Amino acid sequence: MPSIPYEHGLILAAILFVCGLVGVLTRRNIVFVLMSLEIMLNACGLAFVVASARWGHADGQIMFLMILTLAAAEVAVGLGLIIQMYRRFHTVDISVLNEMKG
Amino acid sequence: MIVVWLILTLFVGGALAWASELMDSRLPRVTALLAMLVSLALVLWLYWSSAPAPLSPGGQWLVFEKWPWVERFGIHLQVGVDGFSLLMLLLTVFLGLMATGAAWHEITERSGFFYFNLLWTLAGVVGVFTALDLFLFFFFWEVMLIPMYLIIAIWGHENRAYAAMKFFVFTQVSGLILLIAILCLAYFHSVQFGRFSFDYFELQSVVLEGRFQMLVMLGFFIGFATKLPAFPLHSWLPDAHSQAPTAGSVLLAGVLLKTGAYGLIRFAVPLFPEASANFAPVAMTIAVIGILYCAKLAFAQTDIKRLIAYTSVSHMGFVLLGVYAWNLYGLQGALMTMLAHGLTSSALFMLAGGLQHRFHTRDMGKLSGLWAQLPKMSAMALFFSIAALGMPGLGNFIGEFLSLLGAFQVNRVATIFAALGLIFASVYSLWVIQRVFHGEFKVPGHGHDQGGHDGQENDLSATELICYGAMAIGLVWMGMYPQTFLALSEPTMTFLLESLDGLVSSTALVGEVLP
Amino acid sequence: MLDWIGLLPVFPSAGFLALVLTRGRLPRRIAGIIGVGSVALSFLLAAVISVEFLNSGLESHTQVLWVWMSVGNFSPGFSFYLDGLTVVMLLIITGVGFLIHLYSTGFMADDPGFARFFGYMNLFIASMLVLVLADNLVLLYLGWEGVGLCSYLLIGFWYTNPANGYAARKAFVVTRVGDTSMAIGLFLLFSQLGTLNIQEILTVAPLQWSSGSGVAVAAAALLLGGAVGKSAQLPLQTWLPDAMAGPTPISALIHAATMVTAGVYLIARAHVLFELAPSVQLLVAFVGLLTLLMAGFTALTQRDIKRILAYSTVSQIGYMFLALGVGAWSAAVFHLMTHAFFKALLFLAAGTVILSLHHEHDIFRMGGMRKKLPLAFWSFIIGSAALTALPFTSGFYSKDAILLAALEQPQYGMLLWLGGVLGAFLTAVYSFRLVFVVFFGEQHVDAEQQQIHGHDDHHHGPVHEITGFAMAAPLVILAVLSVIGGLISVPVENVFGAHEEPHASTLIHGFMIAVPIIGVLISYLLYSGVKQGASLQQMLSSVRASKIGSALNRFWFSGWGMDTLYDTLFVKPFVALAHVNRRDLIDQFYGLLAALVRIGNQAVVLTQTGYLRWYAISLIGGLVIVIGIGVWA
After folding, report:
1. DSSP characters for B183-241?
2. In this complex, which of B376, B426, B490 lies closest to C173 when CB atoms are compared?
3. How far apart are CA A4 and CA A6, in angstroms?
4. Which chain B residues contact residue C145 at CB under 8 A?
5. By CB count within 10 A, which of B62, C138, C441, C550 is most buried?
6. Helix axes C97-107, C28-56, angle to 10 degrees
7. CB C317 within 8 Å of CB C229
8. Contact (CB, 8 A) for B244 and B252
9. CA atoms within 13 Å, Cβ hemisphere of B232
10. B/A Cβ contact: 3+ pairs below 8 Å
11. pLDDT tens, C37-72?
12. What is the number of other CB atoms lying within 10 angstroms of the CB of residue C148?
């Protein structure tokens, strides 16, 4: 089975990561920000998987499993926060929530 | 063990006072009073059972204990009580009682937490007066700081947040400088002897080279002089004192300031004899400036607590002068000034607090002629003002006279200028009496023609009378028979002088400046 | 009995405590009994002790009560020392003090602060006794400050009037200037001689110091500073006239008979030090001379009956200083004693006048009181005669001794003597001016009374002499003492060494007798309103009307402008300085630090926008920078 060059996998991961990052930075809807974060997390996960395939070592796979659980937890908490936020402020626009400035 | 018991009594008493608030809001003060009485009993027992502890270095220690704590860095739980510490402990627990009395009716909100802070401050002070390990010393130094901050910040007057923060920043910064100096000393011990040590006696053998010794000594000096406070570092004190609740002012003026002087006598000079000898003229100049400058400032104040605060700085100048004269007269004078000033300033702060409690103002311009309506209180105010201006026969005179006598042997010019402080003291003390207690009767919220019958009810209560009476008796005792106190501290002072004599014979503190 | 001298100050102290601690709740009768009785006990004890001491032939007696403080070599005791000088002082203080206490029970009978008054008076007597009994200078300093405190308390006794408080504070602070000088003197003496015991100092000092050496001069000058403060001599005399704000018995006791002579006592006690410093001793003489002349001229122009007496006190103490300055120690002490008698008499009589005239102080609103107030009149006549040193009164002997001793002074004898005689002339004029204006001439008070009748002004009732046993007896006793006091010889030979009596020619004696009599005559012509003196009276008023005359009058009246001088020189700059820097420059400096920190804080706060993307970008930017540094550095 012809293996995919690991560079391709890493480049894909980088592209995904940048996509997610741009999403986090530009989106105002907090749901999209959360989704972008998920993309970034999964980009990291992909990089781990690729690296583990490259070195023939299972640590990366294990790490991906951990990221998976982390992502799940994050989504759970994040969604809860979003719902709370919507209830309280009746908006999902994060620019409105800038009360913590100094 | 008795020292440990003493500290534990205060710590546990504080915790109990806090807890007891849950049951009844009047319980904390009773708990605190009991804890104070127990500690007073412990200190008195220490006083009567005092025989020199056999193992103590120098032979003047009445109690000397040492347990390992952090062996790796040479940190021990090392405590000791000699005559000097014992007197300071007596003053501490006595004024602790007075502070409890002052707070008795004044503190009504969150009283449990208040007494907790009060007792923990005192525990810290007791620790400071007994610790002979510099790490332990620094630990207690910080312990007494934070509860005091809380006392000012929570129960203070109108501008309390500012005052508390100022107090905290000044003491904390100076405390950190002190810590750095302590660590330097411990480090150089490890360089010279191969292991760390924070032991007071071992650190005395550390040899530091000239300029560096001066730097480390300055670290100690700044740490203690801020607490004292000495002239350019005094500016936290008027705010802290005038904003603190009465009990807080009593502790601050009566006890916390004395830790600075104690530190100078116990640590700053003995650990760095040569540097201190070289520094003495500067310190004495600072003292003189402080005496005169703050006396002048005191005269200009209209806030009565602020005025008393400035007089405290002025009086502590005599202590600084006496310490850096570094002869028996100066040291004993400094000691007596510390004791007597503890009583007078506390009493005056309590009187000012009493005035504020009754008339809701500290502005001298709004009060006048109280003698007619509050004769007992006015008589007490007169007594303590007279004591503060150094009337012979009362404790402050002994202290100031001996300090000046000692300083005169060393630095005549400084002494002559410092003696002018006696004149200024009479100016501001009598000014207060004139403004507040003499003249036509006038208080805010009342007309000039207030009927005499309800005026008297405001006069001192029995609790207050007992407190003032006890302090007045103490002052008369100090003034008429100071030997009780002088004899107790004399072994310590002689020991300190003798142990330094050999070290500084070349750059003698004494006599060199004499023509 | 000699061992009982420790009890002397105990009685009045106990009286003080009893009166102060009961805070006026005692009935007046009991308070009076305690107040007067405690001093009476002291007087009896003092009398017994004095008799025993003088009969025993001892030179001195020391009684150590307890060691006051012991620090190194410095161990002053609470110990009392008795010798001839002390005996004289003891008897004056307790004797005159007792009479004045007795008088006060009448004078203060209606005052609400009756018990407080006697409490302070008792404390004063106790302090004064400690002062004269002290065997070391520290204990003396205790008494010294104690009497100053009582003086403060009693001048400001009627505290509702701020003017009284001002006078009291002025008295305390001005004397404290002197006291501080004295304290420094104590430090100097101790650092040089290693002791503050008076007798030891007097023995050791001549051995260690040569005459006129710098240290001796400094020590004597510093002690002199204390003495001029307490005794109201130049340049610290300004407080005494204002001190008359206190009740009149206080003026008699503290500001005439006892406390103000403490300076004289101090110098006499430390006479060896002054002998070692001839320049300072000469200074003492000139201070006395200048003061007595200055006060004499000032007294000529005053209108307030008590201020006249106050300036005359200043002037008489000037005579004592003059005596001290020329080494006539026993003459000074002698004059101290006679002065205590006649000046106390004058003040108490003045008190009677003031009380009888419902607190009138202005002598020109009195007049013709001879008939109305016979007791006060005769007291004034006797007292003024003694003050003026008319022959055969007590003042005559003591002032005579001083002037003759002044003449003996080798360098400036003639000058000092002439000055003293001029002073005696002034004394005669101003004291009999007082007598003639108050007791002779027309009765101004009643005339005025009729004018303002019906217009219910404050305090004019019919004039009748307020006496009674308590007030009359002291006057009579003091009057007798003022006359015969000159026959008492002060037993101080052992203290000062034998002193040969100065001899002078009959001419000088005659001159010294004639001068006061001329003064009295002039005063009679000027002030008693007799016709023979009309031309003289006219001359006086024309002089007073002239430019120089009125300027001089104002200058003298203001006490030679010393108050204004000190006010502009010390008080105003101090107050101005205090108020300029009320907020404490140092504190402002720390305030500046805090402000700087706050500005820095605000700058950093700008980066906290509250936008999530801003934080994310800065996070990533930071990451890039860190990685970049890691890769390329």
Report:
1. HHHHHHHHHHHSS---BHHHHTT----HHHHHHHHHHHHHHHHHHTT-GGG-THHHHHH
2. B426
3. 6
4. 391-393, 397
5. C138
6. 170
7. no
8. yes
9. 8
10. no
11. 999 999 999 999 888 888 887 888 888 888 888 888
12. 26
Rounded to the nearest angstrom, the minimum Cα separation between A77 and chain C is: 18
Query: Which amino acid belongs to residue C171?
Result: A
pLDDT of amino acid C140? 92
Nearest residue on chain C to A24, alpha-carbon basis? C613
Contacts of C617 in chain A (CB under 8 A): 25
B329, C71: Cβ pair inside 8 Å? yes
pLDDT at C355: 82
The number of angstroms, rounded, from the C-alpha of B449 to the middle of its chain's C-alpha atoms is 42
Residue type, B58: G
DSSP string covering B116-146: HHHHHHHHHHHHHHHB-BHHHHHHHHHHTHH
Please say if the pLDDT value at position B180 is more than 90.
Answer: yes
As a whole number of angstroms, the distance between CA B82 and CA B149 comes to 30
Residue C304: φ, ψ to 5°: -80, 125
If 0-12 CB within 10 Å is exposed, 13-18 middle and 19+ buried, where does residue C551 land? exposed
CA B192 to chain centre: 35
C507, two tokens: 């001419």
Question: Closest Cα partner for B258 from B117, B89, B120, B62?
Answer: B89
Q: Hey, is B68 helix, strand or coil?
A: strand
Check residues C458 and C471 and name the one with the higher pLDDT.
Answer: C471
Nearest to A24 among C609, C610, C616 (CB): C616
- Digit-coded pLDDT (tens) for B76-118: 888 888 888 999 999 999 999 999 988 888 888 888 899 999 9
Which of B434, B480, B492 to probe by mutation at the C interface, max C CB count within 10 Å? Answer: B434
Whether B373 and B453 have beta carbons less than 8 Å apart is answered as: no
> Residue C74 has what DSSP assignment?
B
- Determine the Cα–Cα distance for residues B116 and B139; give it in Å rounded to an integer: 18
Q: What is the 3-state secondary structure (H, E, C) of chain A?
A: CCCCCHHHHHHHHHHHHHHHHHHHHHCCEHHHHHHHHHHHHHHHHHHHHHHHHHHCCCHHHHHHHHHHHHHHHHHHHHHHHHHHHHHHHCCCEHHHCCCCCC
Task: Pick the closest to residue C222 from C282, C271, C189, C181 (CA basis).
Answer: C181
pTM: 0.86
Cα–Cα distance measured from residue A47 to residue A70, given in angstroms and rounded to the nearest whole number? 16
Provide the 8-state DSSP code for C304: B
Give Cβ neighbours of residue B114 (< 8 Å, ≥ 6 apart). Answer: B28, B103, B107, B151, B154, B155, B247
Q: Judge whether B301 is closer than 8 Å to chain C, CB to CB.
A: yes
Which secondary-structure segment (H or E) carries B301? Answer: none
Q: Which of C159, C488, C82, C498 is closest to C328 using CA atoms?
A: C498
Q: Angle, to 10 degrees, between the axis of helix B273-300 and the axis of helix B412-432?
A: 30
CB of C610 less than 8 A from some CB of A: yes
The predicted model gives A4-16 an average pLDDT of: 90
ipTM of the complex: 0.89
Write out the DSSP string of C139-166: HHHHHHHHHHHHHHHHHT-STTSHHHHH
DSSP B63: E
Own/partner pairs, C37-41, CB within 8 angstroms, 24+ separation: C38/C11, C38/C12, C38/C14, C38/C122, C38/C125, C39/C11, C39/C12, C39/C15, C39/C94, C39/C97, C39/C98, C39/C101, C39/C121, C39/C122, C39/C125, C40/C98, C40/C101, C41/C11
What is the SS3 assignment for B62? Answer: strand
